[in-house]
Amino acid sequence: MTFGGRTLALQIPSAPLDNTGYSLYITAMTGKDLIKLLKKHGWELDRVSGSHHVLIKGNKTLTVPVHGKKDLKKGTLEALLKQGGLK
Q1: Which of 10, 16, 45, 74 lies at a 20 to 30 A Cα distance from 23?
Q2: Which domain holds residue 72?
């Protein structure tokens, strides 16, 4: 992923690391954790509709499900990271 001309890698604590220090795998993450990560990368909370938090960045919209302390499923997490530009 490039951000401001620099290449960045997603770092999540407790994930196995390769010899460069970058995480190899995405670990389980809750919707709240993903929202915190997205906010660090410039996304802003627009509105909350039930258990779905809608974030915006420019003209892009991203909907993140937040269901208490339940982890997001792997496919959902991967898709949201890709849509959010973090992967």
Answers
A1: 45
A2: 2-83
Give the bridge partners for 54, in sequence order: 47, 63
User: How many domains in the chain?
Assistant: 1
pTM: 0.71
State how far the Cα of 34 lies from the Cα of 39, in Å rounded to an integer: 9
Q: Residues near 6 by Cβ (< 8 Å), separated by ≥ 6?
A: none
Residues of the chain with pLDDT under 50: none
